[in-house]
Specification:
Elements (H helix, E strand, L loop, with lengths): L2 H16 L6 E10 L3 E10 L4 E6 L8 E4 L4 E4 L1 E6 L5 H4 L2 H7 L2 E6 L4 H11 L8 E4 L3 E2 L15 E2 L4 H13 L5 E3 L5 H13 L4 E3 L7 H4 L5 E3 L4 H4 L4 H11 L8 H18 L3 H10 L4 E3 L2 H4 L12 H6 L3 H16 L8 H15 L19 H12 L4 H7 L2 H6 L17 E4 L13 E6 L2 E4 H4 L10
Length: about 475
């Protein structure tokens, strides 16, 4: 070899040695869909570790360690379940991380659990290299002098806040223990509610809430960041709302000292359906205007369940089969019982109200978030979020708006839009690869080819091998 050829070969060798070693993963030829950027066809999305590093046309040059062909597939941001209870039922707790991921849920917001129970679960999910959704948690339900979830006949996930000072102390303690937000429950007094809001704001903690029975939705709503289940809003939309509120305040004195659970249930039973019957559009419009900056998490798959019971769904048995035996057995028994029972008339007034109010709120510009209350009320972790998306579309949201409720709204709540919620360069690598277009049918969000969680790609086969998923039945 002559000198010129040797120098040329040496130059090429040096240049090759200077090239960085391939790293990262590319999903090529894919249609990217998110609620901010809309639809982007024929894209290649590159992620390296827990960061999306490039989004480019399919003809761009790649230097990656791994490439996945996304032709004919659809890439959406990782989904959130914005209302979960990780420690509500011990039969589910260990299996929940794997179940969530297997259904494309890469982030969850735990809205109520005692600290000594929920904190170890959160720490395990957040451990380095843990294969689990991102988790944000509130600690216990912050109830009033009377506690609904006090452990008597139901799980203990609430704590007493009998006075404003007790509420301030509890919230300060929760902040020290690392909670991401607080959850205000239904039995708090107006004075305690005000102290909770003030303290949370001082400590820069987002506020989640039910509408306390001592307050109206239009009064409490503007002071909190999200409201669950649409509960008690019907009372503020009734033509006789002032009289209902006066009656509630009298009954909340609780002279017979009944339990918090019984007191709350009695008020719901007494006032809910009459309030819906006395719906006043003008009054409800005023209420919704007061809630225009407060995300509503309607949990329609629970609130409106009897319009589409889960055991009537074609894929319910397959979803149920993924659960651990201890969790699946009682639900399977109920499924068989309900399917065998003769048809019966069911009052769907409240269920239909949930769809109606969600549609009205959405049309009024009130932000909507997607949460399920899993595992309460036959909510299979992960699967139930897809049921919620279907209900949101049934209530009038477009499929893209339903995706927004499960991606953008949760990120917005935690001031994380710069890092999550859409598929953009620099954002965290949480994504779901689908076999079919979710904008054609929101049910296609269940047709999962792969999930990217914290930068780790899991194929559909690997998802079924995650801890907690039972594939033996």
């Amino acid at each position: 070899m002559n000198l010129r050829l040797r120098i040329g070969a040496l130059t090429l060798a040096i240049l090759a040695a200077c090239q960085p070693a391939p790293s990262g993963t590319a999903i090529t030829n894919v249609t990217v869909i998110d609620a901010v950027n809309g639809v982007r066809e024929n894209q290649t999305v590159v992620f390296d570790g827990d960061e999306i590093t490039a989004i480019q046309g399919t003809d761009a040059e790649l230097n990656v360690a791994e490439s996945i062909d996304g032709a004919g597939k659809y890439l959406i941001p990782g989904l959130w379940d914005f209302h979960v209870h990780l420690t509500y039922d011990d039969n589910f707790t260990e299996a929940m991380p794997g179940l969530f991921l297997s259904w494309g849920i890469t982030s969850v917001r735990d809205t109520g659990g005692l600290m000594h129970e929920v904190l170890p679960v959160v720490e395990k999910m957040r451990a380095p290299n843990a294969i689990a959704p991102r988790v944000f948690f509130a600690g216990p339900l912050l109830d009033g002098n009377f506690v609904v979830y006090d452990g008597d006949g139901r799980p203990e996930i609430g704590i007493q806040n009998a006075t404003p000072d007790q509420a301030r102390e509890n919230i300060a303690m929760l902040k020290e223990q690392g909670v991401d937000f607080i959850k205000i429950y239904e039995m708090v007094s107006p004075e305690t509610f005000a102290a909770m809001v003030e303290t949370a704001n001082e400590l820069e903690l987002p506020i989640d809430s039910h509408v306390p029975l001592s307050l109206r939705a239009s009064t409490a709503g503007p002071f909190v960041d999200s409201i669950e289940h649409l509960r008690n809003i019907e009372m503020d939309c009734a033509s006789d709302s002032p009289a209902l509120h006066e009656e509630r305040m009298e009954r909340l004195k609780n002279p017979d000292n009944i339990s918090g659970a019984d007191l709350r249930s009695s008020l719901h039973s007494l006032q809910r359906l009459p309030a819906i019957a006395n719906y006043d559009q003008e009054r409800c419009d005023r209420t919704l205007r007061a809630l225009e900056s407060t995300t509503q998490v309607p949990t329609l798959r629970l609130l409106s369940m009897n319009l589409a019971p889960p055991w009537q769904r074609a894929d319910w048995d397959e979803a149920l089969s993924r659960l651990p035996e201890a969790a699946a057995a009682p639900w399977q028994a109920t499924t068989e019982e309900r399917r065998a029972a003769p048809p019966r008339d069911v009052d769907t007034t409240y269920a239909e109200w949930g769809l109606f109010l969600t549609e009205r709120a959405h049309a009024a510009g009130v932000p909507i978030g997607a949460g399920t209350d899993t595992p309460i009320g036959f909510a299979i972790p992960g699967y139930s979020l897809h049921s919620e998306l279907e209900f949101l579309v049934r209530a009038g949201l477009s499929p893209l708006e339903a995706l927004e409720a499960a991606t953008v709204r949760p990120a917005e709540y935690f001031s994380l839009l710069d890092a999550m919620g859409t598929i953009d360069v620099g954002k965290r690598a949480d994504m779901v690869l689908l076999d079919s277009n979710p904008l054609d049918d929101i049910g296609n969000t269940k047709k999962i080819a792969a999930v990217v969680t914290k930068g780790k790609l899991l194929t559909d086969v690997q998802l079924m091998e995650l801890p907690g998923i039972d594939t033996s039945r």
